[in-house]
Here is the input.
Amino acid sequence: MDSVVIGGGIAGLLTALRLARSGHEVALVEADRLGAGATCANHGMLHSGALYVRQHGHIVRHCRQAQSAFGTLLAAAELPTDPAVYVVPDADTPAFLTGLDTHRIPYQRTAADTVDELPADIAAAHVLVTVNERVFSSRRLVEILAGQCLAAGVTILTGSTVERITRASGRVTGIRLGATEHLSATSVVVAAGIGTPALLAQVGSRHVPLLKSRLDMMLHFPRSRVRRGLIFAQLDRAVVMPAPGGGALASFFGGVQPPIAGRRGFAVDLDKAALLGVELARALAPGLVGPTGGVAYMAGKTDYVGSPHAENGVINPGFHVIDHGAGDDLVGLYTVVTGKMTLAFHASKAAADAVGGGTPTCTSRTSTPTRFPPGCSPWNRGPTRESCDGRHPEPTNHHHRRDPGLRQPLVDGGGAHRPERRRHPGRLQRAALW
Ligand SMILES: Cc1cc2nc3c(=O)[nH]c(=O)nc-3n(C[C@H](O)[C@H](O)[C@H](O)COP(=O)(O)OP(=O)(O)OC[C@H]3O[C@@H](n4cnc5c(N)ncnc54)[C@H](O)[C@@H]3O)c2cc1C
Here is the structure.
């Protein structure tokens, strides 16, 4: 294998897809089922960036770009919802609206009597602001991306836990599955969510203390009739989203977030679940969610906090890619921490670029439309280098920006620019997809 990607969540799937489409022979290894980590446990919100205008302004532009790109490329996974409503206390409103203006996020103030998901007293005591947050079925996203990976030639192993990353003379040599099985690879990308710190600890990475994993409690109300996202600036920043297949998904950011180590066996604290149910029932219109009608589950995620953008040194919704060749002296090992499902669009690009080693590509920043020869699309990279070398037109301001690698349709199993050199059928082994 050229590359092994560890983890079959949104970050691993997108990274594997980008690598395969740029000509790498890729295996993706998932301990459980695809999407079994945070990806299929989350709210499914592809962020506009509005949630971050005040504390994490650096990711707003990325959210906006990703929301738009996913909306086009993965439209089949989008849920039809009404525009989301931010429920903002009066005192916070000027800062929030200024943030939206600064980041050019379209919004509208909404009359209290038009949001029937909120009780009259809460609606009257807050400013209601509608923003175009988009809600997706995470499971459908995973299905689509898995199909695209297979079409692009990725070998997918599910139900296969990576026990360790193997190395020799300062380079990765592959991964070990189970007690004896070894899969050789020139590069290994860790996209293992809350499994990441344990894998990196085994190779002695100095980045381990900078990875913080924590739990959130999610409540699923299967019978709730929520038509839009509701995002509370107070109330521990509760987020309620329409769920795929009906009902609502809710969590309280900051409500239940113990730090964790390891990646399995996180029991639901029933007292806390009941408390959250009661709080939520108070915040929403009567009958929308019953205090006891929710099913609670725990979802864990990992942030990279070795960045000045980390909030209180423990939370960072931004993405980060580590090249372990620098600092850990382990060439060929990369880690991708996506921060948000939304930002996996950029995180996977940064990871695939890092693995590609800065391969020059046929892209250009020039605004003048440029014609590229066949097989040398501005949206493709990697092995197209051969086909590009000396053959592509030299545009004004040419530079070696690396491309997203995803402009090929993600929905129709396409791959119009997939290089011929390494073509091989994708394989799905050991277990079924979702
Ligand atoms: C409650 C909650 C709500 C959220 N809501 C949103 C939202 O609405 N919008 C948004 O953009 N983001 C949201 N997020 C964040 C988002 O879900 C995550 O940032 C994102 O899904 C992480 O994706 P990932 O691929 O990095 O990790 P994961 O989806 O966790 O995938 C990692 C995978 O690696 C596998 N793995 C781990 N160890 C190993 C191993 N040793 N061998 C093989 N496989 C292994 C796991 O089984 C898992 O499937 C939310 C997070 C939480 C916790």
